Amino acid sequence: MKYEKRYDGREFEELRPMEAKVGVVKNAIGSAMFKIGKTVAIAAVYGPNDLFPKFLQYPDKARLRCHYNMMAFSGAGDRVRPGTSRRSKEISMVTEKALLPALDLQDFPKAVIDVHIELIQTDAGTRCAGICAASLALADAGLEMKDLVAAISGGLVGQTPVVDLDKQEEDFPNGAVDIPIAVLPRTGELTLLQLDGEITKEQLKITLEFAKKGCDKIYEVQRAALRAKYEEAKK
Amino acid sequence: MIAKSYVESLATKGTRIDGRKFEEYRDISIEYGISSKSAEGSARVKIGDTEVVAGVKLDLGNPYSDRPDEGTIMVNVELIPMASPLFESGPPSINAIELSRVTDRGIRECGAIDFKKLCLRKGEKVWMVFIDIYAINADGNLFDACTLAAMAALRDARFPTVEEGDVIDYKKRTDTPLPISRLPLACTVWKLKDKFLVDPLVDEELASSARLSISFTEDDEVCSMQKGGDGTLTLEEIQTMVELAHTSTKNLRGNFK
What we know:
The complex is a heterodimer. Chain A is of the alpha+beta class. Chain A has a single domain, classed as 2-Layer Sandwich (Ribosomal Protein S5, domain 2), CATH 3.30.230.70. Helix content of chain A is 29%, strand content 32%. Chain A is built from four helices and nine strands. Chain A has helices spanning 86-99, 126-140, 167-170, 201-234, and strands at residues 18-22, 30-36, 39-50, 63-70, 111-121, 150-157, 160-163, 176-184, 189-199. In chain A, the strands form two sheets. A five-stranded mixed sheet of chain A has the order 1-2-3-5-4. Chain A has a four-stranded antiparallel sheet with strand order 7-6-8-9. In chain A, a hairpin with a 7-residue loop joins β1 (18-22) and β2 (30-36). In chain A, α1 packs across α2 and α2 packs parallel to α4. By secondary structure, chain B is of the alpha+beta class. Chain B has a single domain (2-255), classed as 2-Layer Sandwich (Ribosomal Protein S5, domain 2). Helix content of chain B is 25%, strand content 35%. Chain B has five helices and twelve strands. In chain B, strands 1, 2, 3, 4, 5 and 6 form a six-stranded mixed sheet that branches. Chain B has a four-stranded antiparallel sheet with strand order 10-9-11-12, sandwiched between helices. Chain B starts with a helix and ends in a 5-residue tail after the last helix. Chains A and B meet through α1, β9 and α4 of A and α2, β12 and α5 of B. β9 of chain A pairs antiparallel with β12 of chain B.
């Protein structure tokens, strides 16, 4: 079965409508909401704080800790069991690795910076939405950064290369391939790369380039959200 | 720190701690049935001094509600303190969780097991395949070793007898193997300075800035990838790593008869 037209009528390279806003959690030093299609992620940054137990401290820089969580009601099907799972722990870790290359944490030796990511509503692409929100929240916190981090899934739906798969596409009857990536948009370097599904080397190359282009569009939305905060402040 | 600069200086000179080429694996051995009286399938894999054992246990259970006619698999990797001074007891570390999940995906995503053939009665009873992997001695490259061990143990497994009322008689094993249709194999490529190498020793792993685990099926398709490490990768570098992993997994296939 060929996938000739996307379920929601998008072009194959088209991302779902996006919305981004910073400063959504007042208590945090930085926060942001990132919405793509029906997937909604919020991220809040706390710190730098003292890190205990002491053996967790890095002598020369702060530690970045990410906490990814799907809210119990956030899945379209069954209730998500609250608390951490192997999946959420792995996603927290790859999120940390995706964000680290953008940060300069040497100003805060021995400290910790915590990034809390919560998914309120999900329709696939949650780790990418979480990374987009988290990088905005870190920028909102005023931490020194080389760049924002933009993340999106590329993939195949029934052999057709697409960007930003939704849940219905991920569950395509003849199989789908999901390749979440994160990019430092200014240099084009990848900081996250995972893949599930079967794909040839040639298709992989095309799909990665597709997804990388998608990240540039996200970058625009992210930058606009940061700018909007300061325009608001001027008023 | 000393080990890191040593490994880096060797890499610049085009060599490694044990004198191997960058794309060269250590000797690999696979032994089957290492727990044949208890596990339904088992195997031991050695890559140089790295050793892991894997066992498969089968049980009957309820299917997931969204896949009523499919069996299930679960992969669990334990990094026990026996295997390395760097491992500690307690709940699974994030490294163990990542290893478990990457190994799981490599097998699951290409349909290495025909899950529909693990169904006894739709919506009621399916086979659950538990693959448990333990590191015995960790001397680098656990990613590739775990996938090798899991696939070897799966190929070694035979169904037990099912009596009336879905009671399993583990003592009476049948000759029926698991419905395994594919053979995904993983190769992890490590970026050390500007070099790419496979099958690292622990010191080489610690000196690397990024890694990319890539699984290939026998039809030369990529079936899972996972980037790790704090460093970044460009699209060109990824291309190089995919090619290197492809060649390596082709060679790894020689270890399976």
